[in-house]
Amino acid sequence: MDEKNTSVSGTPSNTKFFGLALAAALIVAVGGFAYFKKVDAPITASTSTPTTSTKENDSTAPTSPQPTPTPVTKEQVETATVKASVFKDGMYTTQGAYTSPAGKETVGITLTIKDDVIVAATGEVLATNAASQKFQTQFVAGFGVQVVGKKLSEVSLDKVSGSSLTPKGFNDAVLKIQADAKA
Amino acid sequence: MAASFAFDAIGTKWRIDIRDSLSVEHEDSLLEKICARISAYDRAYSRFRPDSIVTHASKEAGSYVLPQDSEELFSLYKKIYDITEGKVTPLIGDVLVAAGYDAEYSLTQKEPLTPAYLWDEVLSYKDSVLTVHRPTMIDVGAAGKGHLIDLVSAVIEDYGVASYVVDAGGDIRVRSSESTPLKVGLENPLNLTEVVGVAHIVNKSICGSAGSRRSWGDFHHIIDPVLLLSPKHIVAVWVVADTTFLADMLTTALFFVSPETLSQHFSFEWALLEDGMNMRYSPQFPGEFFSAG
After folding, report:
1. Staple partner for B122: which of A86, B117, B164, B235, CB 3.0–4.6 Å?
2. Cα A173 from chain centroid?
3. Predicted pLDDT at A31
4. Contact, A88 vs A30, CB < 8 A?
């Protein structure tokens, strides 16, 4: 699949880093899946409390999930995901341990799986060393989530932000939709 | 008695909610002072007004005395100019006008675009005096609205008000003695009847910017001063920061440089909606996103 190249002035290094970070998350997800625990809490950027365990493939799991970013091609990731097509939908969280030059560190990772696809990946900085904290912050900053729109009428809001300097404010749109809904 | 003011100014809708008690007399005089504050800012910096200082500077080289608030305005602009290597610049005015984003909103490109002047080539600023070495259109659109929201808020606070919300077209400053967050929907730029998430704002400001809005031809309201193209890789961006001024400036800067780079200089939270509805965000962004899962 060709990647659309519409970026005219972006920061390629950042895009690349995001790819690496996500690839690393996928390796952790697939390789170390046994270490992920299902979480019933709602999605947030920093959820990491393990609750009930839903281990699926104990025998294939490595002893320590390595969060080191490693380049992986898209094909490899997809194949690996398809092979392990037994994941229950839900949110999984773990702490990945690794040894940095400053000593042992951990990083928190939460994945949301639906139909054997990772639909969201978030990270939590858990490092104690300053340099590790910086690297982990960059690592988790690369995480993203596929979002969908929800109708204004479905969400309880005080305000809406997004359309800079647009004369017809969205507060009006909210009011109109609410008025229409009541009519 | 709590009060609410709603009015149109600087091309957008304002809504100010005062949650503390105000006497009716104070209410009236506060609204008057707010309108005077906005008007003073507009007279100095609006490139859409024929009588503004920046419009004069676009016609004739020379030194112009700006209001005192220009100190922090040009100071932050210079800082962001250096960090973004000239991508965020008040000298984008001539480019915007040539591309059609002019005082008449012609939205028709008038001439081939030429790169914006470099800061040191044409601008110097010291102690509220702006000198343009040749006629050039200054545009403070990257941060002017956020700056003005903070200046209006200072007027409100002068009345002893501690709890209020100032909303100018979706750029919002919240101050409150209570910790209940203001729930601010993150508008889906591809469908204006939808939001893709909710930010929870307590004693901070949030600003948003979307490339799909205010667009014409191949351009939208942000244009690269060197490449002379509008960045298309980001669909929308939101920034939460201590001041609206900073939040507003950083939304524009994020179209040009990475959040990691900006994080080395400023304290803020960010969310970037990229092509394909992928939302990237800072780990501590105060809010939630509606995931496709």
Report:
1. B117
2. 31
3. 38
4. no
CA distance B30 to B12: 20
Nearest to B120 by CA among B112, B110, B131: B131
Q: With contact defined as beta carbons under 8 Å apart, do A164 and B236 qualify?
A: no
Token output for B57 = 């500077």
Contact A110/A91 with Cβ under 8 angstroms?
A: yes
Cα–Cα distance, B166 to B16 (Å, whole number): 5
Q: What is the rounded CA–CA span in Å between residue B274 and residue B280?
A: 8
Cβ <8 Å between B170 and A164: yes
Count the alpha carbons within 13 Å of B51 in the hemisphere toward its beta carbon: 5
Q: What residue of B is the nearest CA neighbor of A146?
A: B278
Q: What percent of chain B has pLDDT over 70?
A: 97
Vertex B19: Cα angle to B159 and B148 (nearest 5): 60
Is the CB of residue B256 less than 8 Å away from at least one CB of chain A?
yes
How far is Cα A73 from Cα B57, in angstroms, rounded to an integer?
Answer: 54
C-alpha A123/C-alpha A141 separation (Å) is 8
Is residue A159 less than 8 Å (CB to CB) from chain B? yes
End-to-end CA gap in chain B: 45
* CA B143/CA A64 separation, integer angstroms: 47
Our CA angle for A33, A39, A40, nearest 5°, is 145
Residue B259's alpha-carbon distances to B40, B83, B282, in angstroms, are: 33, 12, 8
**Would you call B92 helix, strand, or coil by DSSP?**
helix
From chain A, the residues in CB contact with B185 under 8 A are: 152, 155, 157, 159-161, 170
Q: How confident is the model at residue B163 (pLDDT cuts 50, 70, 90)?
A: very high
ipTM for the assembly: 0.82
What's the rounded mean pLDDT across residues A83-91? 67
CB atoms within 10 A of CB A34: 18
Q: What mean pLDDT, rounded, does chain B reach?
A: 91
CB B18 within 8 A of CB B158: no
| Nearest residue to A92 via CA among A170, A28, A172 | A28
Instruction: Catalogue all structural domains in chain B, each as residue range(s) with its CATH number.
Output: 53-132 (no CATH), 172-289 (3.10.520.10)
